[in-house]
Amino acid sequence: xxxxxxxxxxxxxxxxxxxxxxxxxxxxxxxxxxxxxxxxxxxxxxxxxxxxxxxxxxxxxxxxxxxxxxxxxxxxxxxxxxxxxxxxxxxxxxxxxxxxxxxxxxxxxxxxxxxxxxxx
Length: 120
Known about the structure:
The chain is α+β, with helices and mostly antiparallel strands and 120 residues long. It is built from one helix and eight strands, in the order H-E-E-E-E-E-E-E-E. The chain folds into two domains: 1-34; 41-119, Lipocalin (Beta Barrel). Strands 1-2-3-4-5-6-7-8 form an eight-stranded antiparallel sheet, with no helix packed on it.
C-alpha cells in the first residue's frame, strides 16, 4: 500500500516535470524567434511637396532621441520601437507612428507632408 502511494506521487511528479520542461522549451523557442528591431540611423526621402528637397529622419541609438529635418525646419522628439512599429513622441505631446520594414525602411504619414517611405 505504501509502495502504491509512492509510485502515484512519482508518476505525478514525472508528468509535472515533463509539462514544465515542455513549457520552458516553448518559451525559449518563442523568444529566440522574436525578431529584434534596431531602427537607429539616418533615413531620408524626397519631399513630396518639393522634389528639390529631402526629408531626413535621425534616430540616435543610445539616447532614444531623434530629429526630423524638413527644409529649414527641425523637429525634436523621443522615439521607441515596439515590434515593427516606430513611435515618435514630440515635445508638444504629439505622437507619430511609422512601420519599420526590414530595419531599412520606415513608412509613415506626416501631417502637412503626406505619406513617406524613408530609406536608411
